Amino acid sequence: MLLVSRLTKFFTQLISETSGLSLADTLSLAAHAPQIAADAEAAHAIREFRELLGRFRVDAAPIESLLDHDVAHALAAFFRAFPIPFRDEHIHLTGSLDADFIWPRLAKLLDGPQRALYESKIAEVYGPDALPIESAADVNRLIRLGDDDRFDRYLKILYLAKLVLTSRNAHREAAYHMASRLYRGANVGSIRLKFTLFRETSDSSEQIPGINELTAEDVMLGLYEGFRAFQEEVPAFHFILSPSFRKEPGFYDATRYPSKRASFDDQVRQIIALLKQHPELRDVVTEVDTVGNERGFYRKAHFQEMRVGFRKLQAYGFRTRSHHGETWNTLRQGIQAVDNAMNIWYVDAIEHGLSLGINPNFYFHRMLQRVLIANRNGDPLGRERDEILDMDWTGRDQILDKLLRGQPLTDGEATLATKTKFHHAREVEHYQHDVLNRMIDKRLTLVSLPSSNKKLTGALSDYKDHPFSWWEKKGLRLGVGTDNDVTLNTNFIREMLILLLTDPLELKITKLLIVTTGESRRSHLSHLLWQMRKASEA
Description:
- The chain is an alpha/beta fold.
- Helix content is 57%, strand content 9%.
- It is built from 25 helices and eight strands.
- The chain has an eight-stranded parallel β-sheet with strand order 1-2-3-4-5-6-7-8.
- Helix 1 crosses helix 6 (70-80), helix 2 (23-31) runs antiparallel to helix 4 and helix 15 (300-315) packs parallel to helix 16.
- The protein is globular.
- The mean pLDDT is 94.
């Protein structure tokens, strides 16, 4: 039997016998297990993995060295075989279609009479080096996020999938392909699909050839029919269709509507009419979401254009979710965005919410360290400029001016700058905890997306800085999602492993299973683990 298979069988037995302890405790028991002592190769793998985990915790090893290890592959196989499929609470359509789906459909467009138009649009978004596209491998290269890419670039590279989603049949095939891939590859049996129902925009880089012929009805019914087709094969598969609106002020068709509000109100009208016309959608179209780049979108005034439309949807029974606290110019603004989404849009769930998990005291002090080092070298403020300007420098304007210009501070001035930072961090921390406590009181859900938050925001220096476990200890209702699993080079089980690796001492495997399956009966989970144990021995 191969090493990973032996390790999978062993960990299945150990986890069932211990009711899903933390990863650290599980590995400690594994190292002393009699059956491992008789398997030198497995013993070496477990010992090596424990050493790597210790190094990862002190920044001496990257998380990839753990995720690529045989022990991680065995744990992934354990999760893949778990009897209750997982719930991906946050996954987007365009970033979860792989090259095998996109390439055959894109090839037809490139072989057609409008080849020049499509190539010019692709070059506009991806750059001239993107061409020619001659295989699925070429597509795969374009739809994957690079190591140095961030949120703005991420929104752009979703474009290739959008090019082929211009008909009802394309959406039907996309839904079936996606459901099949997620269920069979990552044991995902329930999804909340985020998708853009209305794609009209004045932004040239976002405009899709042929999109004018696509109706909201085509999109909704195509997705519905595709998922229903997969349900005929796997009746236990569940899905929620969550139409998502771009929140940016300029994301609407200015040639058809006088304002963003007029555009949004018309979209709301169309959704309500669509459900009246197709009552079969009511069981799966139960909520809406907002997506897009939220930098600069945090003031109360920013939320007013969509407020009335949301009230109307809520009156018709829709729940409201919103992408907020994902990106920000300043941490305070990131928290304020979540606050206003709760107070003005009456959201039921916050997607991402990373601004509510950043430790303000650590965040601002580490930032000040970078600023003071740069200042000592005579460098002006860089990416920290917005955060520094957001602080209260009353009576210390000369210090701020020196920081802006890169003129070195005296030791006394550096101390005063530290005091300014200290008081600002305390204010932001108080605000953050106030918003968090209100979320807990209102029983709002916060959906955690580890890879997305690490790769897209730049706010986390490492995966282990992700706040999932801290949120769990505070008592927040949590969900887990992949966001755009293809674009981000991840999958649901990989996200689960990341969460275990980032808190190996406290996060119990059983607790992670509760969050990711929705099954809270611990006795039943223990029974299922023992069933897995029996199956592994067969």
